[in-house]
Design a protein that fits this description.
The complex is a heterodimer of chains A (240) and B (416). Chain A is an alpha/beta fold and 240 residues long. In chain A, 33% of the residues lie in helices and 26% in strands. By secondary structure, chain B is an alpha+beta fold. Classes of the chains: A alpha/beta (240), B alpha+beta (416).
Chain lengths: 240, 416
Amino acid sequence: MLIELKDVNKTYFGAQPLHVLKGINLGIERGEFVSIMGSSGSGKSTLLNILGILDNYDSGEYRIGGKLIWDLSESKAAEYRNKMIGFIFQSYNLISFKTAVENVELPLFYQGVSRHKRHEMAMEYIERLGLKDWAGHYPNEMSGGQKQRVAISTALVTKPDIILADEPTGALDSKTSVEIMDLLKELNEREKLTIIVVTHESGVANYTNKIIHIKDGVIGQIDENRSHDAMRFGSEGVLK
Amino acid sequence: MRFDIDRYKEIVDTLARNRSRTLLTGFGIFWGIFMLLIMLGGGNGLKAILSRNFAGFTSNAVIVGSSRTTKPYGGFKRDRYWSLDKTDIEAIKTLVPESDIVTMMDAEWGGAIVYGENSYSGIIKGLTHEYEGVEAPQLMFGRFINEVDCEQERKVCVIGKRVWSNLFPDGEDPTGKYIKVKDSYFQVIGVDSRSGGINISGSSDQSVVIPYQLMNKLYNKGGKFDIICLTAKPGADSEVLQEKIRGLLSRRHTIAPDDKSAIMILDTKKVFTIVDNLFKGVNILVILVGLGTLLAGAIGVSNIMMVTVKERTTEIGIRRAIGATPRMILSQIITESIGLTILAGMLGILFSVLILWAAGSVVSSMPDFSSGISFQIGFWTGILVLLMLVFLGVLAGLAPALRAMNIKPVDAMRDE
């Protein structure tokens, strides 16, 4: 079990305490291509934050590869994120004043990889995602699909255990969305990467091999989706 | 943290991304440094100009002059004229142990000095070789009067710079030549280039200095003169020295002990102290004003950095998400702040040094300031200012950096 959650609870204490996650139990194996689906307010973003060690949980247990993620210092959390998790966000989250290749280099920079090596590795991933000619361009000179490819390169470059994608197609048109999802699928199949996609679009979810439904802070149904027909959308390349 | 070119490239990128903002923020620091250094340098220059006036003068010299009495005393009416004589010098030497060099000075005004076709009307001063210890001559050519000149009453003279340039317009070495002073011929043995502002019996650049003993005889002075120049022994209290001399002279010449105008005493130490204190005061003021301006600049930088951090929440969040530790973010922001202050400050240093240099060369090129007057700040002042800049940079970056450090990756995601 690569990812193990046992009775994870999370409450936001505001003016009105909000119990967002009410005992999540979940296991994800290495090499799985999973989607977490839920409507807004279902707790899926919170779950994603916890999975990505971006946020703490109140009780329960969360383990990555057997390592307990609990009460980590900020720098330890940063180190784990850097080494174990690659993020893909809806809004790409690229740094606007850095070129594509510099963006991809950044996680390696924080890992302390030497300048030369860093550039080499980043270029390798950029090339693999077909962006060789765009390596020196800034994010605002690229299309949404290209930006998301850069973001995926950034996520991949540290060779993480888990890729966490938060609405990876949220800002893309349907054609590009298909391309990106195909790319993720290919990465999962060819490189045996563990990919978790958080989405509210059933079409996107349908691309994955397993769909975990979350509703009101608890895990609902888990659909095996090997044949990619669990959803009405998503078959035959129709996403939106 | 390890050295990495990208770290510095990053800072340059960030600063270059918002050129106008960087420029305006940096201007505060630039102006602070600029003003501080200009004022410091200006103070140095003024001090140099003023100090030039005292150049060569020993700081512990005391000049005693005789003048008309202003009070009736011992049967004498007021307005009596009196003179010093050689016995006074002997008396001071024996009775005032605080005195070191004691020597006389006499002057004749308006004597025609002639060499060939050139003539000049200057001052004839009678001095002894001992005078060298009171006011060191700056000899361009030759030497000063020595003991043998005085003993043998040799007809030799040391001429001032202006006398030299008038009599020898071609600028040649006049030593060995004979010039006519009033009715006698003197051999020139040296040229004194001093043109200082402390002048006793007229400016030294317009003077012809001859041995006193000779002057006394030539001009029938009868052993009388008006001025005694002396120096205090090292460590001696010049106040005590002055009191003793005043007492001694008033007794010897029957002058009211409280008649300060009859016995005029000038203490160069006092003058030096006043000037010194003046510039100490000016410096303190300059430093206060300069530091104030600098601090205001630093607060400006801090303020802008604060805004920048707020603006960059997302960027910082991304960095945190992909593995930057809070420490890394902290050091990034502080380095940025230091980078900005140092960049602006260096420009300030550069410009102020350039302007001070220009001011220095303009002033030095003026005819009266032949010796170079430097308005420049010292090297170590520069280094100190640089260190101060680093410190200010850290100070300015601290608050924004702490804020940036507390940005959590989730905050960034939520911010969108």
